[in-house]
């Protein structure tokens, strides 16, 4: 074999693509195991690691479609259920989104737009956040981006049947991943319909696509109807209002700020976000205005059509979900907007491209002539390059440090280790987490550490009769020590009244209290 003939031509675009992909992998891998599992992640692993029968039963109770759990179960059977292995699957989905975004940008404009889009995606805190979760959101974003790509293909080639077929296959995977995928699909379908409604063969292609999707989803429709009628599984803030809408907007466009992290992280994150992310958004907005102004003076029929499709889809994407959030309580969550990240990246990329990379300099001057009376184009470009360098330093060095130091979830691992070390056979545990069993996080870490005390765990709500019966049973069983797990968001007993009553009325004697991260406590009491 002649290896001299095996020449790989590395163009500038390919080199930049490789560099950006490496940055994306680095940012998604650097803190992959530094944060412990939280409730939804641990529950997801617990379901996926059970039998197929138990998996389908539990997933139905959680009110989610089955695709991601099925993939995760197969993944765990090969790679195990460690934090690294399970989160790695989400990282892979996130990284696979990069080439899809690249081809999406290339389909809309060119490779320069593609590189801007994937760079913005690589450093997106919102994307990185869900790339480090054992949940379906990275897969959801990947599938929506693929479907968006084929939707663009359908708009550009309205009579090409194969693109409708690819769109339909991806759409089926999308709606089997999350119920919000149905909304995603309707929005993309409306966009395709609006731009192709005058084409002769469009209705035929659309009809067969719709029939294919319905037939494939038919087995899950009864379960989907039950889930929708029963409503959300958890409280997410009630009806949407302007206050939490502004919070979610910051969460999506700038950086996630979850409610359970401590103040130093929030302050640092907000500072970095306003210094780094906000200028990008402002520059993108200026570029988009310039592009829209240029459309009035020049004829870009194809590009104008695609840009309008993206803009229309973006308005429908956020508008529909916001309206539903205002009308129906607990239906609006920022993570359900993750598909919209691709639409935002396209618009951001458009703005930055036409601000910095438009090849026609005279058009650029014409487009920004009012702005250039105040700011010179060269100075604006210099500022852009300085901003890009600052973004790299922030994301590659500063942001991961802040994340590893401040962004720490409850230390359930330490709690289980402490219990295993101090627990005696006659002890019992009172769980104030709000469910009648071990929290999913404790189940996971108990399994990891080979420690089983679930039969000795009880849930005790603040009820006089229940507490009295419970105490009577303790005396009958000759139980002398009780452990109480306390967590800051107790659902059944938010004020800790149960524990206060046990101490004040029944004279429980506190022996030792162990404190873990984020207000997670483990307290040992002796019964007199």
Describe this entry's structure for a reader.
The chain contains 23 helices and five strands. By secondary structure, the protein is mainly alpha-helical. It has a five-stranded mixed β-sheet, with helices on one face. Helix 1 (12-29) runs parallel beside helix 6 (111-122) and helix 5 packs parallel to helix 8. The longest helix has 35 residues, at 263-297. The termini are far apart.
Helix tally equals 23
Gyration radius, in Å = 27 Å
Number of strands: 5
Poorly predicted residue ranges: none
> Which sequence of strands runs across the widest sheet?
2-1-3-5-4
Number of domains: 2
In terms of DSSP E residues, the strand content is 5-15%
Q: Structural class of the secondary structure composition?
A: mainly alpha
Q: How would you sum up the global shape?
A: globular
Tell me the span between the first and last alpha carbons. Answer: 84 Å
Helix proportion of residues, in percent?
A: 55-70%
Helix-strand topology string: HHHHHHHHHHHHHHHHHHHHEHEHEHEE
Q: Report the average pLDDT across residues.
A: 80
Largest sheet: 5 strands, mixed
Give the gist of this structure.
The chain is mainly alpha-helical and 528 residues long. The chain is 66% helix and 5% strand.
Write the SSE topology.
Layout: H1 12-29, H2 39-48, H3 52-62, H4 67-79, H5 83-108, H6 111-122, H7 125-131, H8 137-156, H9 161-175, H10 180-196, H11 202-217, H12 221-230, H13 242-253, H14 263-297, H15 301-327, H16 340-357, H17 361-367, H18 369-372, H19 377-406, H20 412-422, E1 428-431, H21 440-448, E2 457-459, H22 464-476, E3 481-486, H23 497-504, E4 509-516, E5 520-526
Helix pairs in contact: 1-5, 1-6, 2-4, 2-21, 5-6, 5-7, 5-8, 6-16, 8-9, 8-10, 9-11, 10-15, 14-16, 14-17, 14-19, 15-16, 20-21
